Amino acid sequence: MKSCTNRKILVKPLGRQLSRVKNIAGATVLGNGMVVPILNVADLISSAIKVSVAPSLSVAAEETVPGIKRILVAEDSITARTLLKNILESAGYYVQTAVDGIDAITALKGLEFDIVVSDVENAQDERL
């Protein structure tokens, strides 16, 4: 289990190009050079409330709506995976999830997706 530590960080805004990105307040750069997004908690709660009252899209409904984007979320953390799925569905996307890389590859063999959202972790990340 990872231990939590407190860090002082400088939050930088995303800039004009990314100002419309929902639920993200900005980003920071860690000492190891990794860029980390900073969540906008108020937007996140608002998005979660919208998801709880918005109907979820079924696969059959998704196939009948032209122009709807398909997103595959590959994330081993159930919390992050569910949060990403809910946020993206509330924005009007069809979202399928995968619990790991192998599950994602299997999904990619069966369906076409417009984008894949995934994290990449290496052995050095465990030191954080």
Description:
The chain has 4 helices and 5 strands. By secondary structure, the chain is an alpha/beta fold. α1 crosses α3. About 35% of the residues lie in helices and about 20% in strands. The radius of gyration is 16 Å and the shape is globular. It has a 3-stranded parallel sheet. Strands 1-2 form a two-stranded antiparallel sheet. The termini are close together.
Question: Could you outline the blueprint of secondary structure elements for this entry?
Answer:
Blueprint: E1 24-29, E2 35-39, H1 41-53, H2 59-64, E3 70-74, H3 78-90, E4 94-98, H4 101-110, E5 115-118
Parallel strand pairs: 3-4, 3-5
Antiparallel strand pairs: 1-2
Helix pairs in contact: 1-3
Describe the structure concisely for a colleague:
The chain is of the alpha/beta class and 128 residues long. It has helices at 41-53, 59-64, 78-90, 101-110, and strands spanning 24-29, 35-39, 70-74, 94-98, 115-118.
